[in-house]
Sequence to fold (282 residues):
Amino acid sequence: MTTCFLNGNYLDIKEAKISVLDRGFIFGDAVYEVLVSQDGGIFGLNDHLNRLEKNLSEVMIPSPMSRDGWREVLAKLISIHEKVNLSLYIQVSRGAAPRAHAFPHDVKPTVFVMCQPHVGDHEFRQVKCVTLEDNRWGRCDIKTTSLLPNLLLKNAAIEKGTYEAILVRDGYVTEGASSNIFIVKDSRVSTPSLNHKAILPGVTRKLICDVVRSVGVPCTEREVRRDELLCADEIWLTSSTSDIVAVNILDQMSVGNDFRYPLGRRIHKAFKDYKADNFLGL
Ligand code: PDD
Fold:
């Protein structure tokens, strides 16, 4: 049995029901977070809650719960699932109301939290990717559940026999369909900047920047041109559920010279160590 939290109640996920008029269902009018827990502790909780609160405020959904409230729900779900390693999904929609584009008044947000077992990557994984035109909207900094453009891009990448789409807008790299991007050239690391609201400010992205700098390697947040991908020594993808993985083939061409990715391996190990020390009990 998997227990979830819905609007104040802990329920078997099969029993959890929402209104068909919920604006999350009708419009994708909702924001979300994905976090991971290990041995009962959560990684990056404050960063995820900061982003959730910022996103709620950006889309003008009233914050439904205090920080302590979120902590309590997450702690309870972790304890119900006997501290197995989990990915935890939080979603807040504007709530249920008769269908109209204008925001309704006096509706209560729908609050949903679920979890599923999570097996992290222990090895440093290498994946094939493809570049695709980033045709999403202009507020990709908001973690909204309106993910159809991302889903279409991800599926186009999968149909081409690859794992992830690396997105390019006006000749500049933005991010993956569900990940952030880093490139390495001559032992210097770069990642697309948060300017222009064109990418999600990934929690993992920020921590990987910190880890790279902590081992004495320069890490710059800047605009990254598409052609820099072609001559990069390494390309990495980062996300809360996959940590850091290397791209070995991009658009059917090898990345780097030798498939060894020395800096990626070093950062993968350093990040794993950092994570192990920072799964905070609730
Ligand atoms: N997605 N960019 C996009 C578009 C994403 O969907 C994600 C993560 C990231 C990485 O963000 P973070 O490091 O905070 O996980 C970047 C999650 C995991 C998902 O939708 O399941």
